[in-house]
Amino acid sequence: MIQDECLEIHGPCRLDGRVHLEGAKNAALPGLVVSLLADEPLTLENVPDVLDIHNLLAILRSLGLEYEPYPAGVTIYPATRLSSEPSSELVQRIRASFMVLGPLCARTGYARGAYPGGCAIGQRPVDQHLNGLSALGMDVTLHDHRVELKAGNLHGAKIRFDIVTVTGTEHLMMTAALIPDTTILENCAREPEVVQLAEMLTSMGAEIQGAGTERIVIRGRKQLAGGRFYIIPDRIEAGTYIIATLATRGRVCLHPVRRDHMGALIESLEMFQPRLSWENSQTLIVDATQCDSGFPHEIRTEPFPGFPTDLQAQWMVLQTQIIGVSTIEETVFPERFRHALELVRLGAEITVSPPRATVKGKTPLKGAKVKATDLRASACLVVAGLVAEGTTLIQGVEHLDRGYVALDTKLQSLGAVIHRKVADVMPSRLAVVG
Ligand code: EPZ
After folding, report:
1. What is the whole-number distance in angstroms between the Cα of residue 309 and the centre of ligand 1?
2. Alpha-carbon span 19 to 256, nearest angstrom
3. Beta strands 324-330 and 298-301: pairing type?
């Protein structure tokens, strides 16, 4: 047996109160990478205090950048001498770090980094990143699980993604921002995090039009300034709390939440008829105390503004409590269903045949020992523990800490009976890449 930090939840419960939401992890990560491009200090405010952020800061420090804490954020100073190879051990911990390679190569003429592996949610190739970097004039070679980039004559290009990719769009946009030419990206990701990155790069001196649409035009510059930026609220954290409120028939006030970032989730909630009231553009009250039980339906995940894949696992818990057969079609990460096996341990009736899962409800959930396999799967199991009758013990809390700030204490403040504890668990191989 080994000791592992776990979450213990006693359910069922009903969430009630106010919750403060953090800055978006998936906006702060590319925001940190952009510091590689700046010739001046770059300050990010409203950065979430989560493991992925600390891991990326460690990578930037391994490259020679110094940083210091800033109230609820960080200031990063340009390096006097930039290394061209981030630590492989650190890169393997966080996929988003792959984005440092293009800016590093554009800055220093060379970059080499570990090829990010697959993870619990799927294979997650990087061919779109590499094809784009090659189109910008980089010589791309792969050997012994490493990607090597050499800057030939860097130039603008017209690049069309074969598949919508968030960090692929971000990676090429920030690399092109340092190339004094015009680059056109087509079939781009339209996520709010991509839009914020474009706003940052524009404020630093690049010219970027079209972010938030499928076509982005970048006019880069050889030198970019620094600046100070406030990270947008985390729409996936917000969605997780909204789903937990619905699942427990609670009443929760969330702030800050960007109404324009929540589209498809709010539309999907309509089947439960919760009372949603926007106190102002960033304060949402979700009152699910008189909610309908919902009706069988299909959720199809899609790139923004569609239903977010990062809320699919949490939504599956709601489907277990609906009478009838509901389905999920996962079009972004077709294999992203490992959480289903753990929900079955709690009593759910789910069959998975990628890219679809079929959920039969209503099935009473009973507390049990379960294991988190990735960041959003761990959030799903927490929501399930709030609904289940009895005690649920969730192993693999380190996944949760990668992307949620103090989820347990925030839920405690909303009335949940949830505690961290060290427990004896069966050893398991934990792949910490996501
Ligand atoms: C980003 O990952 C997010 N991470 C993920 O959030 C999110 O689930 C995902 O976008 C989809 O919204 C960050 O922003 C740091 P993709 P990313 O490239 O960019 C395929 C979380 O929980 N693809 O948009 O890695 C890929 O396999 C994380 O916060 C290629 O085929 O995802 C997938 O099927 C998990 N070739 C699809 O595109 C490539 O070169 C979308 O992936 C790149 C991607």
Report:
1. 9
2. 9
3. parallel
Q: Which residues line ligand 1 (CB under 6 A)?
A: 26, 29, 95-96, 122, 124-129, 163, 165-168, 189, 309-310, 332-333, 375-376, 403, 434
216-269 pLDDT, tens digit per residue, is: 999 999 999 999 999 999 999 999 999 999 999 999 999 999 999 998 999 999
Reported pTM:
0.96
Of the candidates 30, 177, 165, the one whose C-alpha atom is nearest the C-alpha of residue 96 is: 30
Instruction: Render the burial of 268-279: b for 16+ CB within 10 Å, e for the rest.
Output: bbebbebeeeee
425: which residues sit within 8 A by CB, 6+ positions away? 1, 2, 3, 4, 6, 369, 395
Tokens found for residue 165: 């990719």
Helix pair angle (25-33, 192-203), 10° resolution: 30
pLDDT digits (tens, 9 = 90+) for 39-72: 999 999 999 999 999 999 999 999 999 999 888 8
> Among 253, 316, 309, which Cα is nearest to 285's?
253
CA distance 113 to 133: 14
The string of DSSP codes covering 108-155 is HSEEEEEPP--BTTB----HHHHHHHHHTTEEEEEETTEEEEEE-S--
CA-CA distances (angstroms) from residue 245 to 127, 318, 323, 387, 392? 39, 10, 19, 10, 18
Residue 133 to residue 44: CA distance in whole angstroms: 26
The bridge status of strand 42-45 relative to strand 227-230 is parallel
CA distances from 276 to 236, 239, 280, 282, 337 (A): 18, 13, 12, 13, 29
CA–CA distance, 197 with 232 (Å, rounded to integer):
10
Task: Give the ligand 1 atom nearest the CA of 124.
Answer: 27
User: Active site residue: 119, 188, 291, 380, which one?
Assistant: 119
